[in-house]
Predict the 3D structure of the following.
Amino acid sequence: MSFLADYVHYIGCFALVLIGLYIVLVKTNLVKVIIGINLIDTGVNLFLVSVGYIRMGTAPIFSEDGAAGKQMVDPVPQALVLTAIVIGVSVVALGLSVAIRLYEHYGTLDLRKIRELKW
Amino acid sequence: MVNPILLIAVPLGLGFIIPLLGLIWEKPTRYVPAAAMVFNLAASLLLLPKVLQRPWVVETAGLPPPFSIHLVAGPLGVGLSLLIALVGLLVAIYAIGYVREGPVAKYHSLYLFLLTGATGMVLTADLFNLFVFFEILCISSYALVAYHGDRAGTESSAKYLIQGAIGSSLVLIGIGFVYGLFGTLSMADIARNIDSVSPMKLFLPMAFLITGFGVEAAVLPLNAWLPDAHSSAPSSISAILSGIAIKAGLYAVARVLFTIYGADTIALLVLVIGILTLLVGEMSAFSQNNIKRLLAYSSIGQIGLIVFALGLASALGVQGALFLVVSHALAKSLLFLSVGYMIYRTGSMEISSLYGMGRRMPVSALCFTIGAFSLVGLPPFIGFPAKFTVIMAALERADPLFTALVGVVLVGTVVEGAYFFRIVQGLHFRPPPESATPARADQEEAPVSALVPICLLAALIVAVGVYPSVLTHYLGPAARDLLDKAAYIHHVLGP
Amino acid sequence: MRKALSLVVLLVLALGLASALRGPSIGAEANRGELLDDQKVNFGRRYNSRAVEETGASNVVASVLVTYRGLDTLGEVTVLFVAALGLAVLLHTGRDRKSGKEAEAPSLIVFTGCRFVFPLILLFGAYIFVHGHLTPGGGFQGGAVVASGFLLIYLGCRGRQPDRQRLNAVESLSGVAFVVIGLIGLAVGGSFLLNFLPKGSPYALLSAGIIPVVYVFIGFKVGCELGGIVADLSGARR
């Protein structure tokens, strides 16, 4: 049982990554592909946070009543995740605007029909 | 003395100013990227002699490395930032006249951010910071590829974005593993501790990092986006993507391979990937009718050759690879720039429609010829000493396998020569197609703002080709910067 | 065919990930014992033990984000800026998206409600980014809250849109301000993004030197940028 307790967060986040990857590989609707990319991002962000996790740890914020520093989780992955979230949002926003433009040109979001250039 | 952080901070600040300036008065915005690159060029030139003595480790936030993000301005970093500034400046001058339609201020801002991302990548010594600058580079190039908003541009931008986004996610997973294993993000610190972790656990993170950065570097299985993106973008952007952006991706791969990982174990794999990329690129280029697609595939071929040279993992090999990076950056941006106005005049990217352009646009056609000959590796141009160094490095191994691989490289060069000679012959000696619209005499040759960078690039190619020692003097230290792990760690973290 | 192939790829990837995670695992929990050993550099441990004294901010994540990894944050702000610019470029030349059917005007209750809540949302966002160095939150979070206020306006009060030009100006100005703060640090102490302001006493609102200042700029910037992205995507600009 301890196996599950040790690994459950990793299993969860990589499941998200793999589901997202599956969507990107299989689906042909551009918006669905972007949703897949978003899922991958979410999984990766969860992974980064869980790398810094300590069991029973608290948020790395000191308060005046004085929490013990030893019990705090690693702050660096949290800072990295904040950056990664913003980058993910940027990519998704740009992807959606590309989708809007493609829809204007082709009247469809089906990637099988949008093949003027060779893949 | 100029602090190397200014190479990043000044273009970044100017990039933020451009949209503001665009709100008030749009006209001067197009000179801002050129101004920023003049600054970077001057600063890099000032820094270069100093960092050849000893790399300059720059701390931020007033803390010594590795506890804050730090930059390492070594011979390689400053050399590459010099190359970026040089090519960036020339392409920026070209773009002043070339980019006239659409949201011009936003174009210049994005363009400047792209160059800043590349400069940041080559200077930073922090793995996550490398990723952040990599993303600046990638996202601005996704947007710039679709700048015209036409069908081809949008479609290739979508492909590029999807593949790039997956690549960045892989990099991020790799960084997560690395941080989990080492508790540090400084590349020198990781390199120092790399032996404390079993190779089995290291393999996957490194594979993720290399694959992720490899998407931008366009090595073999990861380059499906490149021909589309480079051929559909505006010509000035194609030039910078081929000349600078893929080199930045390649730099990230090489840093991870040599400085962090120590490439000896997988050098052969890198070599094979390089050869395959070279062959596939050159063969695909041979069968193209679209001039920009042809140039894009030829970029893949050249990247293959650079990866091959890196895979030799010897001082001379890496030196040759860096020589090729410089020669390809100059020659390929020259080709894209000179072909830009030919396409603009004829309105077509078909090679057959460019026949006879040697008479209509003599200077552009001549410069195109110089660039093409240099890429093939003909003697008085920079491509010759570059390819020669790589082949010498491969023969240095005195191993039948490597001799055979040199044969393959030469076959690639022959194919390259075949398709470039076909175009050059068409440009100069074939009659123009019947359907060609006779343009007015006053708008035949490209405008001065385009001819200046084209001629400067051609002059550089010839000059360095005649006096390669100008460059080789710096390539040795730069190659050592990449290969000598112990020295890198020593410079950053102290003894 | 494609499905089967993708499943094979995913299976290989999953096995690889499983093997990489097996054994003494990665991450802070697994290396907990090692944390006591001083030989190895560990960012997290060092920041948790020294950040308050070095930066004066009680929120360690904030001090990591703005000082220790300030260059990353500058890059991150740039990425968002680049994305907003790219979005504007992509949607610039598009067809007029206001094709014919004008959106139905919202009811009076929705309209008044949105107008009533909007300043409160802005206030809350400002609270979050001003207190970024003391409590959970910070510039990005506060900015996202501010942007949700703009989103509400786009949804509920059509016809009352914020001035795009001003949004863009604030965006650019805060970006420039961030770089300038970094450069002042370089000029004063020879190091980019140096915390050159007095640190004050921890837990006070006016403490931690440049962290709250930078966070205010980031808050403004992110709020305007995300608001602009929402506006661009909803085609409200034309």
User: Anything to note?
Assistant: The mean pLDDT of chain A is 84. Chain A touches chain C through 48 residues (CB under 8 Å).
